[in-house]
Amino acid sequence: xxxxxxxxxxxxxxxxxxxxxxxxxxxxxxxxxxxxxxxxxxxxxxxxxxxxxxxxxxxxxxxxxxxxxxxxxxxxxxxxxxxxxxxxxxxxxxxxxxxxxxxxxxxxxxxxxxxxxxxxxxxxxxxxxxxxxxxxxxxxxxxxxxxxxxxxxxxxxxxxxxxxxxxxxxxxxxxxxxxxxxxxxxxxxxxxxxxxxxxxxxxxxxxxxxxxxxxxxxxxxxxxxxxxxxxxxxxxxxxxxxxxxxxxxxxxxxxxxxxxxxxxxxxxxxxxxxxxxxxxxxxxxxxxxxxxxxxxxxxxxxxxxxxxxxxxxxxxxxxxxxxxxxxxxxxxxxxxxxxxxxxxxxxxxxxxxxxxxxxxxxxxxxxxxxxxxxxxxxxxxxxxxxxxxxxxxxxxxxxxxxxxx
Length: 405
Fold this sequence. Notes:
Low-confidence stretches: none
Radius of gyration: 32 Å
Oligomer: single chain
Number of strands: 12
Mean pLDDT: 84
Largest sheet: 6 strands, mixed, barrel
């Protein structure tokens, strides 16, 4: 009975109800679209880092991530086959790639440029590196024994183009100097400007010949689904001997990602708070006006024997019903808007310290939808409490006088 009465009451004032519902609907839509946009930033950034640089996980010798940048030759893995056999039992893993990392000087015949080189398995890296673009030339292949691809920043610094020949000078693990003539087969552009300004890639056999060593520094793991990263990381912890090997996830490998996520989460949390306050104030204003206009009605209800708490219950029921209708409509329209925007896409410029722009979408999440619905519903329900309490505290005689106005 109370629900039926509440439904009739909220639609007595069509214009005011429409304004209140509009505030709730737009608030919920704003939360869904804002949350989905931020979630898409996290997704796009993560996939760009995974598929241009780090892979999903990496296995290295213990201590490599702490000291390996100075002397990577001290942290070489020589028994890769036994590790690969163990990793073959993981159904989540798509591919395992070998990399060796070293530093050197790249010379174009006129000047030197300090670089960081990755010896890679070219065909596998081409499959993993879907976010790495070739801006000149082509991808490195397994047949390019003396081929190399260089970052766009390296190419710009040395005035290089595809087809040029360069000389790479390195220190071998034994401390000797060695050099190799290499042909530039392509120039790549990844997500990061810093990476493109220092990194080059050559085939693993060429790197081994140059270094005079058959070891590698890391096993790069590509997963079928990024969502399996943490599960696979826990499995690796259980099979790897801590004294010999350690593993890191792509989040741990990319410090920039963690800081970006923390920044945007704080910003979106503040945005949620602003929208909550705006919905609360908008709804409270409309609900307050409606309640004070009905002061005489409430006086009559209390004069016939109803308690103030009964009036409060009726107002809470009305506001909850209003919040339910508005939040449900907001969720439906928000999902529809998100799908429409995702179909069209939002062209985005390159983020800070990045080279590539991207097409943003709205990533729908059950969590974001539930939070948006809850904020709309709770804000509307709470909006009636303060004006309702004020009205019920009026003496019944004074409340009844409002019927004569």
